[in-house]
Structure prediction request, 368 residues.
Amino acid sequence: MTRHAEAQQVLSDHHRVSTDPASPGHPMPLMRTEEPSEEELEIRRRFQAGQFIDMDPPEHSLYRRMLIPEFTVRRVREMRPAIQEATDLLIDDMIRAGSPTDLVDAFGFSLPSMVTCALLGVPYSDRDFFRARTRKMMDTGVGSSEEGIAAAIEVWYYLDKLITVAEREPGDDLIGRLVTARRETGELTHDALVGMIFLLLIAGHETTANMIPLGVHALLRHPDQLDALRADPEGWPLAVEELLRYHSIVDWVGFDRVATQDMEVGGQAVRAGEGFFVLGASANRDPRVFDNPDTLDIRRGARNHLAFGYGVHQCLGQNLARAELEIAYRTLFERLPTLRVVGEDDELPFNYDGVVFGTRALPVAWSL
Prediction:
């Protein structure tokens, strides 16, 4: 699905379309071997528990309802001072270390790491452990290479131990609240809680970590747009929406579906058991919806983009992501007004082959 309307149709139709990779005909089947052993099946069952991105309603709805209170507009508004503080601390560190630096290492990765770890209750001191493994998972595919699978298993067992500790002494964080409110009622098994936190950790960290340097790069390469934002800082929320549309860093992964009934999409017959890949980057540049879609226009007001998905699986943490991006961009350009990219674009290590689009490094410099 390459067009905006058909993408919305497929992503919103949970009655005739399934996201479950175990569904017959799914284009990314969960079972990759013909006859897995009982031990392998048990490992897969444990690993998949709680990962509601691969579930259909009503099971998906059960998990999502548990997390909605943690990501409301009001809850994110309460988190903004902490996000601002973390942003300022990281920029302070950049200034002390001096120009030039790699923005991916010094800022793009670190800010969402600090925010996500604080939200979930994961020690920030373990950020390097997560960075190495999430990067491996995103670069090679969580379940499509031995390296990606090994990295995912390491993260899963780390969270398994962390949550085991929280079940004895729950803290004042998302993990602690889920343990207290949900485990005691029997709504969540231990493995399901591990799976939920695994999903939130990966989804909430890697996507924003890639969007921060990409957005900085895009604005530095469009100085007229950046000047407009400096003249009118109230425009940052709309600018964030346009940057999300423009880059669409999560394209088809997570947008894979299968028809469970015969249906029609865009005038074409689709049979039950036929799979879909929704191409979010293409839909977000559909000229039927966005004028001059290949042009970055911070005043566009592109809130109807599909960067966060659509329908019941629309990104749960989108309010938090928007707040992080807005604060990160605005503060960085306010405090470092002479920021510039070092080198030419064709020298930058853009990651075109990974699960999430981004750049592995963004050399920047500034003068004070």
Notes: The chain has a mean pLDDT of 89. The first helix runs from residue 4 to 12.
